[in-house]
Amino acid sequence: MRWVNKFKYPLSTKIIQNLYDDKIPSVSKILKETMSEEKKKALQNWIDKVGREEANKVKVDASKRGDFMHQYIEQFLKNEILKPEKDQKAFEMAKVIINNGLKNNLEEIWKTEAVLHYPERYIGITDLVGVMNAKTTIIDFKQSNNPKQEKFCDDYFLQLAAYIMAHDKVYNTKISQGIILLSTENYMFQRFDLFGEKLDFFKKVFLEKTNEYFKKF
User: Fold this and answer.
1) pLDDT tens digits for 87-145?
2) Pick from 107, 148, 146, 149: which is nearest to 128 by CA?
3) What pLDDT, in 10s, does the model give residues 147-179?
4) Which of 9, 90, 93, 214 could form a disulfide with 68 if both were Cys (CB 3.0 to 4.6 A apart)?
5) Distance CA 166, CA 134 (A)
């Protein structure tokens, strides 16, 4: 595993936004604003079941834990000593991803927390760009309360497809695959891969969602 300064990435999303008169949407905003009615209903049913206060608490706790988990993974990638100073659970979840997903698989790191954008269309930040299992790859790290079934990972795949298209457009690359590395709260590891026809499909769907967003706003 080695760091390679392959491309010059923007230091922040603000730098990109300043290039345009109108603010371009984030990948997450596009996905939120084009969410299917079925997903909206399922989300509302969950909020109604647990209560809005509890739903907000779950969301905030998960966000904090995810932030800490990402910090620990970043320390590993920078060859720093890992110390569970703030969140032991996030630390253990990070180790699950490191030991099962990154070690012996990740060969090159081009950038972590890479700011990517598709000119005039959208912007986002992906966790890692590099080479994984001999293929150019974009990787996102995820955490979940429970194991995920792949059929419920569409938003993950749409994010990856969006980042891959943005990277290919700006840097004239041909990113081969996107990978999700996930740890559950109970320290179960899951890996979801996106490549080939499946990647082409999610690229197409995200472009359709982007067009839908701009028609709407």
Assistant:
1) 789 999 999 999 999 999 999 999 999 999 999 999 999 999 999 999 999 999 999 98
2) 107
3) 999 999 999 999 999 999 999 999 999 999 999
4) 90
5) 21
Q: What phi and psi values does residue 128 have, to the nearest 5 degrees? A: -160, 135
pTM over cut 0.85 = yes
Hey, which residues does 114 pair with through a beta bridge?
126
Q: Where are the domains of the chain?
A: 2-216
Please give the Cα distance from 184 to 167 (Å, whole number).
Answer: 29
CATH 3.90.320 is right for the domain spanning 2-216:
yes
Tokens read off for 120: 């005039």
